[in-house]
Amino acid sequence: MEAYDKLREGQLVISKAGRDKGRFFLIYKVEDEQRVYMVDGKLRTLDRPKLKKVKHLAFTNTRMEGFERGLKEEALSDKDIREYIKAYKQKADGRFEDV
User: What's the total number of domains in the chain?
Assistant: First the structure.
């Protein structure tokens, strides 16, 4: 599967379906080629990741630096994830202000 090759832990994705449609998440863990666990630091925390099908996600080319290392060292917090997503959204909003 082509999309499976692109999936990486720490990658920013957007939900395309379900109650969380339009919400930003980071991939926490790739379960298999059809499903991933995701976190957003708010509703889906590191201790309660959401399992979602890959076909219901829109992918970005953005990835949180140090995500995997932070998980291994237990230095990553839900607050870090929230701040990363917030910063990305603010940056994206800024790109479209001049249009």
Answer: 1
| C-alpha dihedral (89, 90, 91, 97), degrees to nearest 10 | 110
Domain that holds residue 67: 2-95
Consecutive H or E run containing 27? strand 24-30
Question: What's the CATH number where 74 sits?
Answer: 2.30.30.30
Quick check: 8 and 63 in contact, CB under 8 A? yes
The model's confidence at residue 1, banded by pLDDT at 50, 70 and 90, is very low
Cα 42 from Cα 79, distance rounded (Å): 8
One-letter amino acid for residue 92 of the chain: A
DSSP-derived 3-state class of residue 63? strand
Q: Report pTM.
A: 0.84
